[in-house]
């Protein structure tokens, strides 16, 4: 049976470390770390995510400044709020919760956020910096996966790393980060011809395909480390990932559960990005 990679515990450790660093900045340099959180409309899932982000800010001592805008907000209004926050020296990070209402162009919004305050790591400049190995903000979920691996003592250097999924938020930055850690990286996606044949090679298998319980033991090499980025609610209301846990945990050496694996890491890494934003802007 595989060992569990405990994302709840590891994310708690990271939040505690961020809290210490935030306290240090405040006490030694009189700098208060702050995050502007923008939510447009009232999508229930987004509201839950935003509330969790605000709670994590409270825990770590980061000041959150919340903008809850009506569904009818125009793109121009949102862009001018971002302009104002870009200029505001008391704001270190800017987060616009996605998805946005259909009449607002997400790419234009993401590009308007100053790369210095882009704590989500979605701006093309942040993406470009990651791909050429320059310092910059990294998308929180894949950054969290790297922390899960490192803190579970998984050797990435030289490992055969297979990423299933090629999204801008997870798959692509995940591949870049694994390359940075000297992994041998392959990215698979919906057009991959023989997915099972590829995933079977993985020493480290990261699954972000958005299909509930799609990956069973037949896709996994004995002893592989399996990271499940998916989260879905089943008909019986229970949560599950992209990986069929009871099957894969019989062959993997280490595996993340859902819930309690990758999920809590995203917010912990966001908190760390906020701290780093403040440190950089004041450095
Ligand atoms: N919506 C779903 N995930 C995310 C995320 O990581 N950041 C933002 N801003 N919106 C999201």
UniProtKB/TrEMBL annotation:
Q: Which Pfam families does the record associate with it?
A: THF_DHG_CYH, THF_DHG_CYH_C
List the Gene Ontology MF annotations in alphabetical order.
methenyltetrahydrofolate cyclohydrolase activity; methylenetetrahydrofolate dehydrogenase (NADP+) activity
Q: Which domain of life is it from?
A: Bacteria
Which PROSITE patterns does its entry note? THF_DHG_CYH_1, THF_DHG_CYH_2
Has the keyword Amino-acid biosynthesis been applied to this entry?
yes
Key words, A-Z: Amino-acid biosynthesis, Histidine biosynthesis, Hydrolase, Methionine biosynthesis, Multifunctional enzyme, NADP, One-carbon metabolism, Oxidoreductase, Purine biosynthesis
* A GO CC term attached to the entry: cytosol
Q: Which residues make up the binding site for NADP(+)?
A: 165-167, 231
InterPro entries attached here? Answer: Aminoacid_DH-like_N_sf, NAD(P)-bd_dom_sf, THF_DH/CycHdrlase, THF_DH/CycHdrlase_cat_dom, THF_DH/CycHdrlase_CS, THF_DH/CycHdrlase_NAD-bd_dom
Biological process per Gene Ontology, one example term: methionine biosynthetic process
Q: EC number(s) for this protein?
A: 1.5.1.5, 3.5.4.9
Record domain Tetrahydrofolate dehydrogenase/cyclohydrolase catalytic: where: 5-120
Q: Which residues form the Tetrahydrofolate dehydrogenase/cyclohydrolase NAD(P)-binding domain?
A: 139-281
* Catalysis: reaction(s): (6R)-5,10-methenyltetrahydrofolate + H2O = (6R)-10-formyltetrahydrofolate + H(+); (6R)-5,10-methylene-5,6,7,8-tetrahydrofolate + NADP(+) = (6R)-5,10-methenyltetrahydrofolate + NADPH
Identify the metabolic or biological route this protein is part of: One-carbon metabolism; tetrahydrofolate interconversion
Summarizing the function annotation, the protein's role is:
Catalyzes the oxidation of 5,10-methylenetetrahydrofolate to 5,10-methenyltetrahydrofolate and then the hydrolysis of 5,10-methenyltetrahydrofolate to 10-formyltetrahydrofolate.
Matches recorded under NCBIfam families: PRK10792.1, PRK14186.1, PRK14188.1
Subunit details: Homodimer.
Family statement drawn from the similarity comment of this UniProt entry: Belongs to the tetrahydrofolate dehydrogenase/cyclohydrolase family.
Q: Could you identify this protein by its name?
A: Bifunctional protein FolD
From the UniProt record, report the name of the gene that encodes this protein. folD
């Amino acid at each position: 049976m595989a060992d569990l990679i405990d994302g709840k515990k590891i994310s708690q450790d990271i939040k505690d470390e961020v809290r210490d660093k935030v306290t240090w900045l405040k006490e030694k340099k009189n700098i208060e770390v702050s995050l502007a959180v923008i939510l447009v409309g009232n999508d229930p899932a987004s509201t839950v995510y935003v509330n969790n982000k605000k709670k994590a800010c409270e825990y770590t001592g980061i000041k959150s400044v919340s903008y809850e805008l009506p569904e009818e907000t125009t793109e121009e209004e949102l862009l001018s709020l971002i302009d104002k926050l870009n200029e505001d020296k008391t704001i270190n990070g800017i987060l616009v919760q996605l998805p946005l209402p259909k009449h607002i162009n997400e790419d234009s919004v993401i590009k308007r956020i100053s790369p210095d305050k882009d704590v989500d790591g979605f701006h093309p400049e942040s993406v470009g910096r990651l791909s050429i190995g320059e310092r910059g903000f990294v998308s929180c979920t894949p950054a969290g996966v790297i922390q899960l691996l490192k803190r579970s003592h998984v050797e990435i250097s030289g490992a055969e790393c297979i990423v299933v999924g090629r999204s801008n938020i997870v798959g692509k930055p995940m591949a870049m980060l694994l390359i940075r850690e000297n992994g041998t990286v392959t990215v698979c996606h919906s057009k991959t011809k023989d997915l099972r044949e590829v995933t079977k090679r993985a020493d480290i298998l990261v699954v972000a395909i958005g299909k509930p319980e799609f990956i069973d033991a037949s896709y996994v090499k004995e002893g592989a480390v399996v990271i499940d980025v998916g989260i879905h609610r089943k008909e019986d209301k229970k949560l599950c990932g992209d990986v069929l846990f009871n099957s894969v945990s019989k062959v993997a050496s280490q595996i993340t559960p859902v819930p309690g694996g990758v999920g809590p890491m995203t917010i912990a890494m966001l908190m760390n990005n906020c701290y780093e934003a403040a440190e950089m802007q004041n450095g």
